[in-house]
Automatic annotation (TrEMBL):
It comes from the Bacteria. It comes from Gaopeijia maritima. This is Aminomethyltransferase. It catalyses: N(6)-[(R)-S(8)-aminomethyldihydrolipoyl]-L-lysyl-[protein] + (6S)-5,6,7,8-tetrahydrofolate = N(6)-[(R)-dihydrolipoyl]-L-lysyl-[protein] + (6R)-5,10-methylene-5,6,7,8-tetrahydrofolate + NH4(+). The gene is gcvT. Residues 285-362 form the Aminomethyltransferase C-terminal domain.
Length: 369
């Protein structure tokens, strides 16, 4: 590892557990533990897994114009968000290209924007630029906040042992503030795996104690630490997009399957004019889900073809541990984007048959919606 990589507060814990560390979004992160990606994936589907996602960025927005700023820089309608609620959204540039996808949290006295680690500096500059002239106070709290994700059908019972908070009151995309193992946390339920579970935002200095206590409390219920490898295969089985793979500045939300969060009728926001024009004209390419109907392992960058002619490219792909099938996401020409369309993915020079499928690929999860 190079010395320039950042480390989360749990770095020493990952090493002690035998985590295989890799560079990711400027951080040194565990891709897997000795259990292996497949076992970590299955643990989350059948019991529970604990992820360190402290590399994510957290921006705090306060002031009389806080809502106005959030509305200006995001495509979703934040005015509809209640105190104690979170909202999935995206930031786009003037041409409609996606700068980042993010989760917006509304507290009684502030907003929190949770952004991808790889985009933290870029996002901070963008939000700061658009805050000029507004009555807002911005703070980058990323280094002060650790983030743990406890995911799986056993997550609720495990966490209940360590908090007095009524977890049943934390609905999907809702959050509360409460103690976990004696440490004050924001407890939310946004998920990224397709299973029930919670995210814990807590002071960095409390991360090690809560991490250790959770693993100890959940051991008898099958809880194990899980790395980035399992997190990726779990999110892909649900068809959740990953920035840098499936989302980027070269594609708009309307092309990327995020039209449902793009509220053109909410008023002005950065990129609205371009997105409105694109919606009127119709998109020429779309992000779709793909299921291989023959055996194969789809990987990012592989061509998507029809009758030997390229019509798109794979952006994410894996062999699904839950389904035993190759699954992928990728952009294809709009003419081939309808569910059920037959395409092929070119793997080592051979076209492997695939079908366009609307995610999720895996539908047996216990997530509450």
């Amino acid at each position: 590892m190079t010395e320039s990589l950042a480390r989360t507060p749990l770095h020493a814990e990952h090493l002690a557990l035998g985590g295989r560390m890799v560079p990711f979004a400027g951080f040194e992160m565990p891709v897997q533990y000795p259990t292996g990606i497949t076992e970590e994936h299955r643990a989350v589907r059948e019991a529970a897994g604990l992820f360190d996602v402290s590399h994510m960025g957290e921006f705090e927005v306060r002031g009389a114009d806080a809502l106005a700023l959030v509305q200006r820089v995001t495509v979703n309608d934040a005015s509809r968000v209640e105190v104690g609620q979170a909202q999935y959204s995206a930031m786009v540039d003037e041409s409609g290209g996606i700068i980042d996808d993010l989760i917006v949290y509304r507290f009684a006295d502030r907003w929190m924007l949770v952004v991808n680690a790889s985009n933290r500096e870029k996002d901070w500059a963008w939000v700061s630029r658009h805050a000029e002239g507004l009555d807002v106070e911005l703070a980058d709290r990323s280094d002060e906040i650790a983030l743990l994700a406890l995911q799986g059908p056993g997550a609720r019972a495990i966490l209940a042992e360590l908090t007095d908070t009524d977890l049943d009151a934390v609905g999907y995309y809702r959050f509360v503030e409460g103690g976990v193992a004696g440490v004050e946390c924001v407890i939310s339920a946004t998920g990224y795996t397709g299973e029930d579970g919670f995210e814990l935002y807590l002071p960095s200095e409390g991360a090690v104690a809560v991490w250790r206590t959770l693993l100890e409390a959940g051991a008898s219920d099958g809880l194990i630490p899980a790395g980035l490898g399992a997190r990726d295969s779990l999110r892909l089985e649900m068809g959740y997009a990953l920035y840098g793979n499936d989302l980027d500045a070269e594609h708009t939300p309307l092309e990327s399957g995020l039209g449902w969060i793009t509220k053109l009728d909410k008023g002005e926001f950065v990129g609205r004019e371009r997105l409105a024009a694109q919606k009127e004209a119709g998109v020429e390419r779309r992000l779709v889900g793909l299921v291989l109907t023959e055996r194969g392992f789809p990987r990012p960058g592989y061509p998507i073809v029809v009758d030997g002619e390229p019509v798109g490219v794979v952006t994410s792909g894996t062999m699904s541990p839950s389904l035993g099938l190759g699954i992928a996401m990728g952009y294809v020409a709009a003419a081939h984007a309808a569910a059920g369309s037959a395409v092929a993915i070119e793997i080592r020079g051979k076209g492997v048959a695939a079908e366009v499928k609307r995610p999720p690929f895996y539908t047996e999860g216990s997530i509450r919606r």
